[in-house]
Records
---
Amino acid sequence: MSEAAMPEYSAAPPMDTSRLAAARRFSRKDHFFHRLTQASALAVLGILVGVMVSLLIGAAPALGTFGFSFLWTESWNPVTEKFGALAPIYGTLVTSAIAMLIAVPIGIGIATFLTELCPPILRRPVGIAIELLAGVPSIIYGIWGLFVLAPILQRTVQPWLIEVFGQVPVLSSIFAGPPYGIGVLTAGLILAIMVLPFITSVTRDVFDAVPPMLKESAYGLGCTRREVMWKVVLPYARVGVTGGIMLALGRALGETMAVTFVIGNAHRISASILAPGTTISASIANEFTEAVEDIYTSSLISLGLILFIITFIVLALARYMLLRIERKTGG
């Protein structure tokens, strides 16, 4: 091939050094951001593991002394150094169950009213008022419950419950005993008021996220408001509603000061919800300063470990339920 027939190749354009330097800076910043977020996530896991390990170390003497019988023993006697967690576990579960039975339907009802029925001029003030309830310190709820709610219950509600259900099988045991005012029922009512803003706020937000076209289509088919809420809005928003309920349940399980004021702090199990009782967090708050013996302190730390495990199980079950719901809905 002759030189005249050979193709001519132009020289490669010089590389733009300013763009290359900018790309390298961007890469370094992106790498730093990635490492920072990764370290933050690992720090959360590290704190969680650290809390768990600390609780296990602190609870080891009590668990080594009493074994698994610590979980189903009702006795709590610091004098004889005989401790059992059954009464606090029972009180924690019962008060939380009462709170959720009261707060869930009321919270969903309030969210329904705010999204579907409330006049626009009242929607924002009522919503803000409900959200402000979440910012009230728990000790204020406890003081109010002890000095205002408990006397009202003692004079009115509890005597009425005893009179109405006194001759009904099973219910006569649940509502038995003198009206103390304070007790498991009072603690459950206080918890219901405290967790109500969480359920209402989350439920209202997920109801607002329902596409208007779905509701308009249901109304166009002749559905009533109740049918639209029950058959369209709730099924669409059930993942968010379930998440809000579980968030409220976690708050109810761990609440301390408000419950300590009104539950009566009695280490015993009673079939009546009108009787005094105790919870895990209330027992720890009441007795930790008095625990001078090692086994006493270790028993209280064991209660904290049990509460940690209960809360973890509840949140894990909540996550499992949400995954099942998402799979069924194809989300």
---
Amino acid sequence: MNGAAMLKMTLSMAIFGSIGFFTGKTGIPAAELVFVRCICATLFLGLCWFISGQHKVEVWRKREVIQTMICGIFLVLNWVFLFKAFEEMSITVAISIYNLAPIFVLILGSLILKDKMTMTSLLAIVVCFLGSILIIGVQNFTSLTDFFGSGFVWALLSALCYAMTMLLGKGITGLSAYAMTFVQTTIGILMLFPFMNFDVFNGLSTSNWLYILGTGLIHTGFVYYLFFDSLRKLSTIVISALVFVDPVVAILLDTIILDFRPSILQSIGILLIFGGIIYTLVKPNKKLVVSN
């Protein structure tokens, strides 16, 4: 087992787990924050890509480039929706729903790729669905107003886009991870630029700017560097286990620093969601690799 790679993967997941806390301190809306994140990631990872020399040996195939660009659209939407969810609900609830992405991969895989849906997969889906109802609160499902105002839709959309990112990324083999992300974040800049309200950056405090730059450089550039540098040195099983460091750190920060206290039903819902996901990931022949 590669100890250095495990340490880098664990550190990347732990850092990303704090992104919800950082997001709330930036003082800017979700779309503008993702825009800054895309700029920082493009510059940071583009530099790493250039220094490594990988850019000289890339294999550019038209189909893979188009697939990477579409994948980038879903990646950016995933970030925007997740940050919108953080604005409307607690980090614990949002991150729990967000981590339903592997379950969506199962559902979409059976619908789009015609993968066989097993009883194990169906059971995991039902368990996670019940967990979602408990974690968001049954009362929020009684009216459309409460349902849409809860932030549940944003978190669910972020998980769905995350799943699409995983599915689309699986078929890309010619491009390096650096090239893929460079293309995706560049697409994010072009995609979000027309919708930017640059007035939101006026009057920000030094603290706000530190959190904004931290989200861009540390939570995106540095985390992606650590993730990509360790990804191909670890087995799928180890990666599938280590990605749970992310939600654990997020939930700990939410409860310890932000004083979130889940109700008994929400706690049961969290356990059901992660129980269903873990049960799916540890089953043989399941090779879902997730990255943020």
---
Amino acid sequence: MKTSRRGFLTLTAWGMAAAAAPGMLRAQNLPRPPQPARLRLSCQEGVAPGKTLTEKLDFLEAHGFEGIEPWGGGLPRRVEEFQKALRGRKIRVSAVCAGFEGVLISEDEQVRQNAVRSIREILTAAGALGAVGMIVVPAFNGQTKLGHVEARELLVRLLPELGEHAHKAGTRILLEPLNRREAWFLRQLADAAAICRDVNHPGVAMMGDFWHMTWEEPSDFAAFVAAGPYLQHVHIASRKERKMPGEDPGDDYTDGFRGLKFIGYQNFISFECGSKGNPHQSIPAAVRLLREQWQAA
């Protein structure tokens, strides 16, 4: 079909008009989320102030947190401690942060098997505590000599067994993309989602971290939309120095919050960060900021 110059210009003008009215297109073309998203705040155990687990839980509950995120190392020996401390509270374990031995995509089989064994043990504890999942980084920089293709093929081969163990325990593996200063393998949420899709197991999912995303994602909104239903946990920190949200000038999470709302995100956003000031003051201030930006998103 031939198009005249005038016809071409007309089509171009319509295209420019559509680009100038994204709100209209969004209202017409973008689907509603499966359910309204929720802002459910969590905090890593080591970030929350307090000398004991009970003191930490008291502080978090007093400031509206719904979750606590323990370190995975040694957690199998602490299951009863957490169960007793959480009894009668509204707060729960959100996710379990790593803490395993070995390297999942090491070129050394002994190192890999050590990782598989250790991850299975922590997954069992995570399931007993009702955690959404256990965070797993396949390898940090310098921990594997495998190339990207070999490492990905190995990971996809190993994950179904671990995913099955997680599923039977009532939890999930949560793959975490990092920034390139920490890991060149697995840096973007879309890549983690593609791995989850290839594995295709209910016990294998992923997470996102606003701080890592600062360096690796062109758009927080697009990253979370690409992750879609595979996204089951989120970390948050200030955008530049990994301190409390709001402690870096211009800290803004609204673009990402729009993405979470778009996919109807249901699980936790957990503080993984330091603090420039006294956490008794900086944590409540961060909570206020996040609630304001969630409302604005």
